[in-house]
Amino acid sequence: MFTATKRVSQVAVHMGIAFALASTMSGSVLLGGLAVLAEPVINVVLLPFHEKAWHARIRVAATERRRHLLQVGEKVSQTILHATVAFNVMWIATGSMALGGLAALVEPICNVIILPYHDRLWDAMRARLSRTPGGQALAAS
Predict the structure, then answer these.
(1) How many helices and strands, by DSSP H and E, does the chain display?
(2) d(Cα 78, Cα 97) in Å, to the nearest integer?
(3) DSSP conformational letter for 65
(4) CB 137 within 8 Å of CB 115
(5) Cα angle, residue 111 at apex, residues 36 and 80 outer, rounded to 5°
(6) pTM
(7) pLDDT in tens, 51-73
(8) Nearest in space to 55 (alpha carbons), one of 40, 77, 28
(9) How high is the pLDDT of residue 136?
(10) Positive or negative: CA dihedral 130, 135, 136, 138
(11) d(CA 96, CA 99)
(12) DSSP letter string over 87-122?
């Protein structure tokens, strides 16, 4: 239950960022709404596969330096994934490669900066729940 709630919250954060940027860039609330429906959902669906692949590589890193380089690679790769999805959604929605390119630059950067804070907040809530009687079951779900 906790993990599902965290995922729903991630979708909401993505939707808020996507809507704000898309409606501002296009000048259309309708196109902003399209981005809210498509772009964040695509990212949230793809991100667990991305994380699983990178974390498997990071886990078996032979040295601390290699582990650090792989973590950097993961963040760069995550940014590229977000940029590709943002570009394609805005390009399809507006027919403009320029707006697609702008979205591809701005939106993923916002997500990569904001989402770690989101995840830390959820991790802190999980830790707090696990310390309370009856909260252990909820935190473990």
Answers:
(1) 5, 0
(2) 21
(3) H
(4) no
(5) 100
(6) 0.61
(7) 999 999 999 999 999 999 999 99
(8) 77
(9) 67
(10) negative
(11) 5
(12) HHHHHHHHS-HHHHHHHHHHHHHHHHHHHHHHHHHH
